[in-house]
Design a protein that fits this description.
The protein has 421 residues and is of the alpha/beta class. It is built from 14 helices and twelve strands. A hairpin with a 4-residue loop joins strand 8 and strand 9 (401-402). The protein is globular, with a radius of gyration of 24 Å.
């Protein structure tokens, strides 16, 4: 005699499970472009071997079956019901094996921000970073990705809809020239400095000078100002994966498939960064308006975090009304209701000079100018801790870096809110 639970589980296996499998097979068979996605873990060559026109094209050899690291089984069972006993047993097994990644957050490297958000980024969580154009969202996000990739056991997957991989590399070289958090500003490189070094050395090579270096790495390693930055960058270059995403092609399914492959290849130790959310392609869905599009995207990013057991960190743009405001808040971001509901952590960036309370008794217009290079990070959504707390960090925009050693805001800001230390 079967119990009610056993009968329900048998009915699930017989009726519901085949429908889920059939649906997944149908979705996989109707992919629009992801069948041709290059493997992000394989090197890409710009010079494929030539093929003789008269000869038949060579047939590609069967791809070897990838060797996958043992997984916890979370993804395989993410959409299947499990008893609490099964969940406990799985957690027991992981802890006994020393797998504590579910309990140890990944520090962003920005202090005291990490302390406010529970130590850093966590698996299955979606973190959003919003603010106006030019405030430093990409600078902060790329620096956080770099900080995570510097850990020998962690990987960062950075998708940019705004910049090429080469441009991101150049930014990182400028960042490494001041080496946050050490911040040796005397050796700082700007983009124009970096370009001048490369162009001048290549010009010497073309003119037949013996000291004219050939490759980019050789040029940088031989230059006194660029040698240290390239060496620092190479320490984590194998663990920072970059992708120039396309607003017309790189949709949620493509991001999920690439992330799944990277998670398998790295043993699940990958953090996804998206720059930025509203640029993600939405098809074959047809959203009714911008808010509907943002809802689809943010729900998809949250699903990636949950189903693949990875942290997801995404930049969000402000809407037109928000850009008119003196101080941007979470409700100024496009599709704010969905962003607020789906995100685990939401951080909003504002220029400190712009949001200082001008009627504050300690306000001094001359001293206040020094605050133009400070950015206030406000934790407006925080599932695991306190919200509406302001911390500030100094930005070195010409070197594409923040000083990650920040502090709580002491001055009064607009919105009639005083932040106490």
């Amino acid at each position: 005699m079967y119990t009610t639970i056993e009968l329900n589980l048998k009915r699930y296996d017989r009726l519901i499970l085949p429908d889920i499998v059939a649906r997944e097979e149908f979705l996989m068979s109707t992919r629009r472009f992801t069948d041709d996605l290059p493997d992000p873990m394989q090197p890409v060559t710009d010079n494929p071997p030539p093929v003789t026109p008269s000869a038949p094209a060579p047939q590609p050899a069967a791809a070897p079956t990838p060797q996958r690291r043992p997984q916890s089984g979370r993804r395989e069972s993410a959409h299947l019901p499990r008893t609490l006993t099964q969940v406990i047993n799985e957690a027991d097994e992981k802890v006994m094996q020393g797998d504590l990644v579910d309990y140890v957050p990944l520090a962003t490297g920005f202090d005291p921000l990490d302390g406010l958000i529970g130590g850093g980024l966590r698996k299955t969580e979606l973190t959003l970073l919003g603010g106006a154009q030019g405030i430093g969202k990409t600078i902060a996000t790329l620096q956080i990705a770099r900080n995570i990739a510097m850990r020998p056991d962690q990987y960062a997957f950075y998708l940019s809809y705004e910049h090429t991989e080469a441009h991101l590399m150049h930014r990182l070289l400028c960042l490494e020239s001041i080496n946050p958090p050490e911040l040796d500003l005397t050796s700082g490189l700007k983009l124009r400095d970096l370009y001048n070094i490369i162009v001048s050395q290549r010009a010497k090579k073309f003119m037949g000078r013996n000291d004219g270096s050939g490759s980019l790495q050789a040029i940088l390693k031989e230059n006194p100002k660029a040698a240290q930055p390239i060496q620092r960058l190479l320490r984590y270059s194998d663990r920072l994966i970059l992708l120039k995403a396309s607003p017309a092609v790189t949709n949620l399914r493509a991001i999920k498939e690439m992330t799944a492959r990277l998670a398998d290849a790295t043993g699940g130790n990958v953090t996804v960064f998206v720059d930025y959310l509203q640029k993600i392609a939405v098809h074959p869905e047809r959203p009714r308006d911008e808010n509907d599009k943002v809802t689809i995207i943010v729900e998809g990013l949250k699903d990636i975090a949950l189903s693949l057991d990875v942290p997801v960190f995404s930049i969000v743009a402000a809407d037109r009304e928000g850009l008119k405001s003196k101080r941007i808040h979470l409700y100024h971001l496009r599709g704010s209701s969905a962003l607020d509901y789906e995100s685990d952590i939401a951080i909003i960036m504002n220029n400190k000079y712009q949001i200082l309370a001008k009627d504050h008794v300690a306000f001094n217009p001359y001293n206040a100018k020094a605050y133009r290079n400070w950015v206030v990070f406000t934790v407006e959504k925080n599932r695991a801790g306190r919200a509406m707390i302001d911390v500030e960090f100094q930005i070195h925009a010409e070197n594409f870096a923040f000083n990650p050693r920040g502090q709580r805001v002491q001055q009064q800001l607009i919105d009639d809110k005083v932040i106490e230390s």
